[in-house]
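Reply to dn_fold:

You asked what the input looked like. This is it:
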Amino acid sequence: MQIPLHRVLLAAACAVLIAAIAPGAAHAQAFPSQPITLVVPWPAGGGSDTAMRLTADAVTKRMGVPVVVVNKPGAGGTVGIKEAMSAKPDGYTLAMIATGAVFAQYNNPNANALDEMQPIVFFGDDPSAITINPRLGFKNVADLVAYAKANPGKLKNGNDQPGGSSHVAAAMFERGLGIRLTKVPYAGFAPTVQALLSGEIDMASVALPDVVEHHAGGKLRILGVASDKRHFKAPDVPTFREQGFPIISGLWRVIAAPKGLPPERLKVLEAKFMETLSDKEFQEKARAAGFLVTPMGAADAKKRWEEDDRAMYPVFMEAGLVKTRQKK
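and this is what came back:
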């Protein structure tokens, strides 16, 4: 039986059309299909940079495309976050968000509000610490407090820019210890630690992993850890609570995308990052570098930063630190 010519031509046309459409459809569904940029809004060499480079290297193997860390420091993390959150919400530009973003939204008119960002995964917490240059001779937090009260403003504390987590920690230490410090801003934890090592400043309020190796080597001295228990990398250092000062302060890290990320892409990113952060080998590498990784998915990450937002806002208001938008 001979098939009519018009049917042959119609079938051929349909085949050509399907062949033309199919690759495009497959390409549209394939995610990710190109490198992903992970913006770290702090200089290279600090704890956040180290944590995210460990993560990027490990998640690349699962993602199937390179995950590339790009450092964009400035204004207490605001510059890098702003650039990342201004990108197209297609999943190819992400950023590391730290605790300081909770504060920045109320103090920096250029900062993104938390509700302008889509959390993907929670990395973990690092406790803040008071670390001194050993030349000061203080043996514990009480020694520092006694000196600071007798010499208001004389101690120079290294911290990041207003809105950064170590700047907030310094303000909380002042409030909780009843002292006044001269806060000296740096572009991130790495330059702060270098300034402390050189004696340019007296003390610093950065997260513990950034100073623990120098503490172990005797180049710096951690006086107290602002957490509910001692840190596994510095078991010799008592908490503030153990020393009679019930202060809890720290830094968490969340990987986030611009608001508007398609749900199906969020699902892919969340799954790949959760697999990576939960991996035993990765956790061992992170622990060796001083990080305790406690991964949580997008919903729990959002819940965590919203809880901190509610808890910290009254402190900011009381301290007169709310300069721009107010919490609704």
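The CA atoms of residues 99 and 131 lie 20 Å apart.
Hope that clears it up.
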